[in-house]
């Protein structure tokens, strides 16, 4: 999610020099893209849970997704209306958002079932898919803090953008716990 946000120009403060129409189009695309990726990650978690033999996990994942889809859709539409998008464009953004989770679930479920291997259908892969989904949710829910963090940058990465060095350090720091767990089993 961070890479998508940084590649699309980052989040900008409302006092930016860009014109409102350019800023509105770019920020509406970024908001929709972020929520679509998050919804697809939700679908991945749901597809992995459905492929497992644990119906209780499948139900928990389904209920968790349903509880936050309506507020996310409402927030997306409200944001797009505030950005001044036409209603037909808002409907298209909402349709893409609405289809992301079911398509992600369907593709993941088929991928796990078609592979037929026990390692992919284990609760371990379901847990990893849910962690990925939760990570995208945490990023989307805290992204409004990033402009405050990056606006004081002295390395030329201000205005909602990290410098390449900052982005590299952030990604390495995020992946460090993964590398530390290799070869460590309980």
Automatic annotation (TrEMBL):
GO terms for cellular component: Golgi membrane. It is found in: Endomembrane system; Golgi apparatus membrane. It comes from the Eukaryota. It is a multi-pass membrane protein. Residues 1-25 are annotated as: Disordered. The keyword Membrane applies. Keywords: Golgi apparatus, Membrane, Transmembrane, Transmembrane helix. GO terms for biological process: zinc ion transport. The keyword Transmembrane helix applies. Pfam families: Zip. The chain crosses the membrane at residues 29-53, 59-82, 94-113, 125-146, 167-185. GO terms for molecular function: metal ion transmembrane transporter activity. This is Zinc transporter ZIP9. It comes from Halocaridina rubra (Hawaiian red shrimp).
């Amino acid at each position: 999610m961070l890479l998508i946000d940084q590649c699309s120009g980052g989040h900008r403060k409302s006092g930016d020099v860009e014109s409102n129409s350019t800023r509105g189009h770019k920020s509406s695309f970024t908001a929709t893209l972020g929520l679509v990726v998050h919804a697809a990650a939700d679908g991945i978690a749901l597809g992995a849970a459905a492929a497992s033999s644990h119906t209780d996990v499948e139900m928990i994942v389904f209920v968790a997704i349903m509880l936050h889809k309506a507020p996310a859709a409402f927030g997306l539409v409200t944001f797009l209306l505030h950005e001044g998008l036409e209603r037909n464009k808002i409907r298209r953004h909402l349709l893409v958002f609405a289809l992301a989770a079911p398509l992600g679930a369907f593709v993941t479920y088929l991928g796990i079932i078609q592979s037929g291997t026990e390692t992919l259908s284990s609760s371990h892969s379901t847990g990893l898919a849910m962690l990925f989904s939760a990570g995208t949710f945490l990023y989307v829910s805290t992204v409004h803090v990033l402009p405050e963090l990056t606006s004081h940058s002295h390395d030329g990465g201000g205005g909602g953008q990290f410098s390449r060095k900052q982005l590299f350090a952030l990604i390495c720091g995020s992946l460090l716990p993964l590398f530390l767990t290799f070869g460590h089993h309980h």
